[in-house]
Amino acid sequence: MDNVVFQVIGKRSAKFKDSQGEDVSGCNFYLIYSLDKGEGHGTDRVFATDSRLVKSGYVPEVGDMVTVQYNRFGKFVSFVPVEAASGEA
């Protein structure tokens, strides 16, 4: 979903152990967006580790409009803030 503008509608902290037994902490972000095909809205959830959020320099708040950047392997890289006037979910 390239260049889709999402609205952050919720977020929840998460902590767990990865497959090597290392502690992982981060946040689940719950997003809504307008459907290009069809009617209404779609939803998505993105998990971002605390370290990835620190690297990105931006942590969205509920109500923020964002795009989501992924690397070539489909892993989350960062959120990019978008002005609300450019498109609402």
Describe it for me?
The chain is mainly β and 89 residues long. It has one helix at residues 50-56; strands at residues 6-17, 23-34, 41-49, 65-70, 76-81. A 5-stranded antiparallel beta sheet has the order 3-2-1-4-5, covered by helices on one side. The mean pLDDT is 91.
The Rg value, from CA coordinates, equals 14 Å
Structural class: mainly beta
Identify the overall geometry: globular
Order of helices and strands: EEEHEE
Number of DSSP-assigned strands: 5
User: How confident is the prediction overall: mean pLDDT?
Assistant: 91
Percent of residues in helices comes to under 10%
Let me know the largest β-sheet.
Answer: 5 strands, antiparallel
Quickly describe the structure.
Helix content is 8%, strand content 51%. The chain is mainly beta. The longest helix is centred in the middle third of the chain and has 7 residues.
Describe the secondary structure blueprint for this structure.
Elements (H helix, E strand, L loop, with lengths): L5 E12 L5 E12 L6 E9 H7 L8 E6 L5 E6 L8
Antiparallel strand pairs: 1-2, 1-4, 2-3, 4-5
